[in-house]
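REVIEWER CHECKLIST
Item 1: Sequence provided? yes
Item 2: Single chain? yes
Item 3: Sequence as submitted:
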Amino acid sequence: MKFIITKSIFENIVSSMQPFLEKKDASSITSHIYLEVNDSKLTLKATDYEIGLECTIESITDAIYGKATVNGSNLLGIIKRLKDADIIIETDENNLIIKQNKSTFKLPMYDADEYPTLIQKDDLKQLEISTINLINSIRKITPAIDNNNPKFELNGALIDIKTSKINFVSTDTRRLAISYLQNISNAEAQFIIPKKAIIEIQKLFLDEATIMYDENNLIVSNSAMKFFTKLINGKFPDYERIIPQSLKYNMSIPKSMLVESIKLVTSLFSNIKITFRPHSIVFESLDEDTESKTQIDIELNIDQEFYLAVNAKYMLDFLSQTNNEEVKIGFNESNLPFYLEDEKFFTIIMPIVLEK
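Item 4: Structure as written out by the authors:
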């Protein structure tokens, strides 16, 4: 195998492969990137069995057919140190040779025929949805996906395809985040995408792509790359029963006011109390050792005072994903879950219960 490629192109692709490599065991073949030259095209693959990426590059020269594997981390370490000029990559017996000008590097290879194949299935269903809409929807709920929860289904996002809409749902048990889109033509289905896959999809796909799935796998692909992930096999909690059927109070508040005030009182401690009064909102830290407090004057059209106590991070996560200048806050009374809403996106947050 042999090919010549521009350093910047090769570095970008090898760098994008890193999240898909086995990190704990450098002796595993899945710590390697698979390379194959065929018909003047270079194909690269990386997978840890749970998630994988395949990329195709046509901008190579002096191509000679062949295939190889090489430790992905070591390969990137070498490529980063090279100058921004063409690189010669070739195989010699059981080694991959990397050359640029008068520099030469040699890395050991494994048997490329033993490299695991990525999912190749013809019976997957297509998810009829704009990739941009998919990315925007999952981006909003990503902060609320849990990490390392023993209930492993919470370590991913639920795609709940209903008759009239598609819900994108995540929860870390302290909050529930939901964004939704209109469903035009997709059959009803549910599947859970792991958090790692959710994050990588957002990095990889900026333009239109094809999205295919079955009960165990999800594949997102375009002309240059194919991404796959195994889905989480589990039952997501019945999130709809948590959504309040009615709200006693519902008000719109300028987002910039909320963000500025919350950040002002959370410089030392993240738990805050927000007191709503007919003509103002008071923000104060719940830190017992220090005092942080600020107030904004605003007409709220309420007839009594009430408060919300909350981890400010949950509110800031929501506000960072909103598009409009104003957001809605809904609640029934102090010490009960409250509701934040923006266009086709809402979050329900469990409060910190304070003694009345």
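Item 5: Key structural point noted by reviewer: The helical segments are 7-17, 72-81, 131-141, 195-204, 255-265, 312-320.
Item 6: Recommendation: ____
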